[in-house]
Amino acid sequence: MTDDRHYLDHEEKSVVIVMTSGPSQRHRCATPFYMAAIMASMDADVKLFFTMEGVKLCQKGVPEQLTALDGGKTIIEFMRDAKAAGVKFYMCRPAMPGYEMEVDDVIAEVDELSSGGELADLILSSDKVLFF
Amino acid sequence: MECNGCEFRPELYYDAEFQIWVRIEERGELAVGMTDISQSIAGKILHVRVRRPGTLRPAGKPVATVESGKWAGPVPNLFDCTIAAANREVLEDPSLLNRQPYESWIARVQPAQPLEQALSVLLTGDAAWAGYQARCRRDGIACKRLPA
Question: Which of A124, A127, B16, B50 could cysteine-pair with B64, CB 3.0–4.6 Å?
Answer without folding.
Answer: B50
